[in-house]
Structure formats: structure tokens, C-alpha cells
């Protein structure tokens, strides 16, 4: 349907914003420019500083084309033409989730939603027209003319817009505040949107909303690689690091498949949370089997208990207990606490009773080894 209208230039899109502000009676506003919207927001702030209270740039592109004087572009001119010719043949399949939201790349439902959004928004021909305009944008000369309070947010591993864009803007927009955030998602509403909201809130209001702990019943799953130190020493740092990355990819795929949430990684270990212990056990078994293809052996431990959730993090005795259970597991083994075993009654999962086991700092706990899932 958008094909029925003329594709706007950067200047025309800037004028659209001004007309909307006039229509609603807004004299001044804070602008939030994400991705290619950052270029238009920068142009508006530089042109109409009297109407811009503040500027927030999130994963914003400065120049899309990769050239000798701009190594942080996405594609060269030749690569861009090839992308238009080949990539848009798959318009409507939601493939762009891989670089827009890599943290959700395995989410089939979200990918299908994105595909529908693409089809219902525009045809490949219309997309090509818009992308040609976006590809030709270069706002390097605009940046130094911005004289409004500016916050720049950029994820360090952004898969769509290289972090070099954010770092360059931080150096060239006068008095800008720069916050480099962890993660690879390009869209601001990805897996860690809270950190973006916190930064924007503090920048615009001067106050960061304090995080209130939330107590929830959660099943925690800990995994780590058996004899990782020895393998790392034998392989060398670079080879081991590459193998770890492949291990991370497989783990994240399994956690997503069983509807878990990655909490954090520490070296070669994973901590994930699940709202159901049976899914957590099945995820552990699938993960152990999956990483065997890499020549790695995992061990896993699970516990269900009340955890304190602050933002995306988990804490509490239940987390410590889960870690201690995992530490007692052998290669390829899944150990669970008595609580987990009791909660999955009737699921068909079979266990071997290991009896009371001493856990460092937590005393004796009754543990069970998973035999089959």
C-alpha cells in the first residue's frame, strides 16, 4: 500500500515531522532516531534546534555505503546492487530477523510476523526505491551542526549498523553523551530493551528509574564444558575461541527452542531460566547432544526455587544451589534437585536416586540423575 505514495527524500521526511508537530500543537519535542531514522532526526535537529529539546540516536547510520573513507558502511555499491537483485527475491520471508534481531533469530513466530509485516507494507519494488535513497544518504557534514543535547546509543555487536557509526557520531556531535551497550540486536525493542529505556529516561528526565526486584519461581539451568581448560590449552586461544562461539550458537538455539531465557554466560558456562522444569530438563538433554557434534562434553544441573529478578538478571539461593548441583555432574550427565524431580511427576522423565549429596556451602541436598527424557 505504501507503493501508492511517493518515496520521500530525507528532506521531505524531515518536513513530515515538522508538519505533524504543527498539527498537534507541539512547539518543541525530543526526537528518537533509530537506524536510518537517525539521519532524518539529525537533519531536523540541526535545521530546527529551536523545536528540538533533545536528540536520541539509537543504532543510527551515518553513511550506509562502505567506501575507502568510510569503512563502517554496510555494503559497497557493487554489493548493494547484488543485494537488491538477490535479497529482495526473499521479501516476505522475514529473513532480516537474522541481522535486525539476532537474539530472536530462532523465534519462528516472530520471523513469520516480520514476513507478514514486509508483505503488507510494501512490494520489493517499493523497498528497492526506499533503500536506494537510504543507501545514498551521508550526514557527516550535518553532525557538527547539531547544537542540541544529544544521547548516542549503540550496541557493540550491532549486526546491521557497525558500532563505528556510533563512535564517529560521539566524536563529531558537540557535547554528545555516548553509551555503548552490550548485545547484537539492531532494533531497540530487542532482547535487552530495558537498558535503552533506562538510558533514555535518565537523559531526558535526569532520573533513572530504580530497578525493583521481583521474586518469581524459576527453574535455573546451568551448563558448562567438561575439561575445558585442558582443551583450550591443547587447541590454542584462537581455535578455542572459535569453538566456543559455535558452542554459544548451539546453546542459544536450544534455549530458544525450549522457550527459555539466557541469563548470562561465564567463560564456557551458561545460565538459563525456564518457567517449566520439564522443558528445562529436555533443553539440557538436547544441548548436551547438540554440542557433541563439536567434540565437546557438557554437564548440567537444575534447581527450581524462588529467585530475585532484577532487570534481566537472576539472583538468590536458588541460583547458587543450581550452580552447585551442576558442579557435581559428570560429562553428559544432568543432575537435578529433589524439587525439580517432584515437579515433573507424570512427565515420563526417569531418574536415578543419588541420595543426599554434600553441596559446598549449602549442606546436604537430595539429588537425582536424569536417565531418560
Short descriptors:
four-stranded parallel sheet, 12 strands, Rossmann fold, alpha/beta, eight-stranded mixed sheet
In short:
The protein has 14 helices and 12 strands. The protein has 373 residues and is of the alpha/beta class.
Structure report:
With 373 residues, this protein is an alpha/beta fold. It has two domains: 2-205, Rossmann fold (3-Layer(aba) Sandwich); 214-372, 2-Layer Sandwich (Alpha-Beta Plaits), CATH 3.30.70. It is 42% helix and 24% strand. It is built from 14 helices and twelve strands. The protein has helices at 10-24, 37-47, 77-87, 97-100, 108-121, 124-135, 140-143, 163-172, 193-205, 228-235, 237-257, 277-291, 317-327, 338-343, and strands at 29-34, 52-58, 150-155, 177-181, 214-225, 261-266, 269-274, 298-310, 313-315, 334-337, 350-359, 363-372. The strands form two sheets. Strands 5, 6, 7, 8, 9, 10, 11 and 12 form an eight-stranded mixed sheet that branches. It has a four-stranded parallel sheet with strand order 1-2-3-4, with helices on both faces. The protein is elongated and about 70 Å long. The two termini are 49 Å apart.
Amino acid at each position: 500500500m505504501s507503493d501508492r505514495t511517493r518515496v520521500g527524500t530525507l528532506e521531505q521526511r524531515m518536513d513530515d515531522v515538522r508538519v505533524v508537530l504543527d498539527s498537534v500543537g507541539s512547539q518543541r519535542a525530543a526526537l528518537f532516531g533509530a537506524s536510518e531514522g537517525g539521519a532524518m532526526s539529525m537533519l531536523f535537529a540541526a535545521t530546527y534546534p529551536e523545536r528540538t529539546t533533545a536528540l536520541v540516536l539509537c543504532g543510527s547510520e551515518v553513511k550506509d555505503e562502505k567506501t575507502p573513507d568510510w569503512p563502517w558502511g554496510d555494503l559497497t555499491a557493487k554489493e548493494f546492487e547484488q543485494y537488491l537483485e538477490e535479497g529482495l527475491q526473499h521479501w516476505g520471508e522475514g529473513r532480516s530477523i537474522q541481522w535486525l534481531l539476532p537474539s530472536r533469530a530462532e523465534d519462528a513466530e516472530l520471523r513469520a510476523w516480520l514476513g507478514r509485516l514486509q508483505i503488507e507494507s510494501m512490494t520489493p519494488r517499493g523497498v528497492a526505491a526506499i533503500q536506494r535513497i537510504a543507501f545514498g544518504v551521508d550526514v557527516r557534514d550535518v553532525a557538527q551542526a547539531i547544537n542540541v543535547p544529544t544521547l548516542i546509543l549503540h550496541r557493540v555487536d550491532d549486526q546491521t549498523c557497525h558500532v563505528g557509526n556510533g563512535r564517529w557520531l560521539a566524536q563529531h556531535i558537540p557535547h554528545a553523551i555516548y553509551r555503548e551497550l552490550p548485545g547484537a540486536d539492531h532494533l531497540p525493542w530487542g532482547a535487552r530493551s530495558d537498558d535503552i529505556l533506562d538510558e533514555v529516561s535518565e537523559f531526558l528526565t535526569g532520573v533513572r528509574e530504580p530497578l525493583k526486584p521481583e521474586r518469581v519461581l524459576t527453574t535455573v539451568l546451568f551448563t558448562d564444558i567438561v575439561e575445558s581448560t585442558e582443551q583450550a590449552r591443547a587447541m590454542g586461544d584462537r581455535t578455542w575461541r572459535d569453538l566456543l562461539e559455535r558452542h554459544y550458537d548451539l546453546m542459544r538455539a536450544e534455549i530458544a527452542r525450549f522457550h527459555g531465557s539466557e541469563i548470562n554466560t561465564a567463560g564456557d558456562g551458561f545460565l538459563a531460566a525456564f518457567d517449566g522444569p520439564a522443558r528445562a530438563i529436555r533443553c539440557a538433554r538436547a544441548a548436551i547432544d547438540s554440542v557433541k557434534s563439536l567434540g565437546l562434553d557438557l554437564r548440567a544441573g537444575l534447581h527450581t526455587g524462588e529467585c530475585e529478578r532484577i532487570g534481566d538478571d537472576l539472583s538468590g539461593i536458588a541460583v547458587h544451589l543450581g550452580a552447585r548441583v551442576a558442579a557435581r555432574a559428570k560429562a553428559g550427565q544432568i543432575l537435578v534437585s529433589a524439587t525439580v524431580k517432584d515437579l515433573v511427576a507424570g512427565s515420563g522423565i526417569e531418574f536415578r536416586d543419588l541420595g543426599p549429596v554434600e553441596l559446598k556451602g549449602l549442606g546436604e541436598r537430595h539429588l537425582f540423575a536424569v536417565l531418560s527424557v
